[in-house]
Amino acid sequence: MVDDDRRWLILVMSLSGRAGSARMRIWRALRSLGATALRDGVYLLPASPGRYQALQHQANAIQALGGKSLLLEVGDASMETTEVLPALFDRNSDYQELLEAVAHWQKECPSLEERDAQRRLLQLQRRFQAIVEIDFFPGAAREQAVMALADAEATYNCSFVPDEPKATRGEIPRLECSEFRGRLWATRRHLWVDRVASAWLIQRFIDPEARFLWMESPEQCPAEALGFDFDGAAFTHVDDKVTFEVLLASFTLDGDTALVRLGELVHYLDVGGAPVPEAAGFKLMLSGARERCPDDDTLLAHVGPVLDDLYQAYGSADG
Q1: 282 shares a domain with 194
Q2: Contact 91, 141 (CB under 8 A)
Q3: 241 near 171, Cβ under 8 Å?
Q4: Across the chain, how many H-helices and E-strands are there?
């Protein structure tokens, strides 16, 4: 069975009215899966292996409660008026409510405390992901939400992550890691997403003997240091790439698909773009780590294993 909008899953169920709380749990589970009710006790989903397993789990739960259930997979040829079925899964109203909430957050953001602004933005990002998971027939509304959340991330960074570098234009030269061993690397202190990920990348893949200088301002960068992620630095934003992605390209690491996926995560959290499911959790973790760690050396040591784990997971997923 393949993920195909020309095939459908139908769950037919009956459960005693005396099982009120159990019925409510089943209903909530079906709703979270994005199932739509064709009539009382009859639920519909586009077919996919994952959705089949999820519905089968609910069917088993119904039977365990003394009810009856039947799970069917049918094709368009077995049903009438199948052209109207995708409209039953229209999520435009959900996206519209999200867009209104994002606009409200952006209006209030400059007057919020950083922690409150971040908490509310994370809620909006999780709300988007919840809609995406049940948006089986995406359209323009999803793209509008993507753009709105990208703007929201940029608004957050402008308000609470000052001195972000401005992108330059030009070619990214290809460099050899062997020529950059044991160097002093410098960036702005109080690390955030792009800087901490770039420092991890340097230490892990480019210069294992790297020494780091965390500066109060770019003007403090010594002549012998390799600056990154600030205006005028040796490695900073170029065109549509953030510093992490520029480092990938500079040192020919952009053939590593796991690092590229990490770059997508960093890109989204730094300048916006296509949302990444792990972004909200990583941002929340990093925010907590910044509060707990007394300095940037400790922060890098703390966050490094998390980035190691993400790199491993992305690589395993590709395999």
Answers
A1: yes
A2: yes
A3: no
A4: 10, 7
